[in-house]
Design goal:
The complex is a heterodimer of chains A (about 140) and B (about 250). The mean pLDDT of chain A is about 90. Chain A is built from three helices and six strands; from the N terminus they run H-H-E-E-E-E-E-E-H. Chain A folds into two domains: about 1-35; about 35-125, Beta Barrel (OB fold (Dihydrolipoamide Acetyltransferase, E2P)). Helix content of chain A is about 35%, strand content about 30%. In chain A, strands 1-3-4-6-5 form a five-stranded mixed β-barrel. Chain A has helices at about 5-35, 40-45, 130-140, and strands spanning about 55-60, 65, 75-80, 85-90, 100-110, 115-125. Chain A starts with a helix and ends with a helix. Chain B is an all-alpha fold and about 250 residues long. Chain B has one domain. In chain B, about 75% of the residues lie in helices and about 0% in strands. Chain B contains nine helices and no strands. Chain B has helices spanning about 1-10, 15-45, 60-90, 90-120, 130-150, 155-170, 175-185, 205-235, 240-245. The longest helix of chain B is centred in the N-terminal third of the chain and has 33 residues, at about 15-45. The radius of gyration of chain B is 20 Å and the shape is globular. Chain B starts with a helix and ends with a helix. The model of chain B has no long low-confidence stretch (mean pLDDT about 90). Classes of the chains: A alpha+beta (about 140), B mainly alpha (about 250). The interface between A and B is large, with 42 and 44 residues.
């Protein structure tokens, strides 16, 4: 490669390097907020300070879902198979919400009771796409 | 072999050669890409099986995945063009970035919109500030910056140089878009299609999806060529070669 072009190649690499450095610095600045949710273990070992709303995510524990008969109030347990937190919520659930499926709950955390008063429930879909018929056959 | 590649590279930089060859390729690319899109859409929307968990709403994957995938590939190719422009001062690279940026922006927008439409029924929200969604929005903003910057310079050469630099700055964002779902907790699920391992989407659903991805890639090739020809004819309208090939003079 000719001398002047080699110089410009270094210039190009320098731009990419600086930009990568900028992104890395931004990452270190916001490191604690990049994760969308805390797992129950995060909340157990390292409970967040302050009274702000937080998000907790994991699986809805099998058999833990309790619905009120005369209101939209529900209670369930989010687990990561090591630790778990109890969630209370009043409102309508997304279609994909069910036991043993991924969920992200936003609300106010009480670290003494390990419980969350949620005001938003989001269902988390996994990467598996299976046809209805195949799933039925598998369950037989 | 190397000599042939080098010759091809030099030819790519020539506007008259590109104008001639692209004119021949465009009709084939257009017919092939649009028929692939039509076939894969019909296959995906009517004939592929319903998903066991999501129901029929999953079918938006046949638009969402091709759109976001091609928007990232366009950006990678634009950043290669940006390096080529800065190192070799090849004018064609500037034409490439200017012509492909709006197409990339359009597909990023389609990806974000279709994702939101899918997110509302499945997740329960249109938008959430997780790492995958936010980094894709950053990609969209880089596209907008590149498009906006084109017209802020008096000379074509300084515009192309500045745009190349901003394109290279944005390329660092692409690995973040790709790996965000693996590195952090996100609401967005990890990739379903795997090139090296086994895909976690059933093959009956995967086949039309691969076809729709191929269709969209070809469509971008087709519209990219059209857009580049238009850009070349604007830049070269007073050149002799262009007057010879165009019917206007």
């Amino acid at each position: 490669m000719k001398q002047h072009r080699l110089k410009r190649l270094y210039g190009v690499l320098f731009i990419v390097f600086c930009s990568a450095l900028a992104f890395i610095l931004v990452y270190f600045a916001i490191k604690d907020n990049v994760n969308l949710f805390y797992s129950p273990s995060d909340l157990f070992e390292n409970p967040p300070q302050g009274r702000n709303a937080i998000r907790a995510g994991g699986l809805v524990e099998i058999g833990s879902l309790k619905r009120s008969t005369d209101s939209l109030e529900i209670a369930f347990i989010i687990t990561d198979l090591k630790n778990s937190i109890a969630v209370n919520y009043i409102g309508i659930l997304p279609d994909l919400f069910k036991e043993n499926a991924g969920v992200v709950a936003t609300g106010y955390f009480d670290k003494n009771k390990m419980s969350l008063d949620a005001y938003q429930i989001l269902a988390k879909h996994d990467e598996n796409y299976v046809p209805k018929e195949v799933k039925k056959a598998l369950e037989k | 072999m190397f000599q042939t590649l080098k010759n091809f590279y030099h030819k790519l930089g020539s506007f008259p050669w590109f104008y001639k060859i692209s004119g021949k390729v465009i009709p084939f690319a257009g017919v092939l890409s649009i028929s692939l899109i039509v076939i894969s859409s019909i296959w995906g929307l009517f004939f592929s099986p319903t998903d066991a968990v999501q129901g029929d709403v999953y079918r938006i994957i046949y638009f969402h995945v091709p759109a976001v995938s091609v928007s990232q590939v366009i950006y990678y190719s634009m950043s290669i063009a940006a390096a080529v422009f800065l190192i070799w001062r090849m004018k064609m690279a500037g034409v490439y970035i200017k012509s492909l940026a709006p197409i990339g922006a359009a597909f990023t927008f389609i990806g974000l919109m279709s994702g939101a439409i899918w997110g509302q029924p499945t997740w329960g929200t249109w938008w959430v500030w997780d790492a995958r969604l936010t980094s894709t929005l950053v990609l969209f903003l880089f596209y907008l910056a590149i498009i906006g910057m084109q017209s802020t310079f008096a000379s074509r050469k300084s515009a192309d140089t500045a745009v190349s630099i901003i394109t290279l700055v944005g390329v660092v964002n692409l690995p973040i878009v790709k790996k965000s779902v693996d590195w952090w907790n996100t609401l967005h699920q990890p990739a379903s299609i795997s090139i090296t391992g086994e895909s976690s989407i059933s093959s009956e659903m995967l086949l039309p999806l691969l076809l729709s991805i191929l269709g969209i890639y070809l469509f971008v090739f087709f519209t990219g060529l059209l857009s580049m020809r238009a850009e070349i004819s604007t830049r070269e309208q007073n050149k002799d070669w262009f007057k010879k090939v165009s019917n206007y003079n």
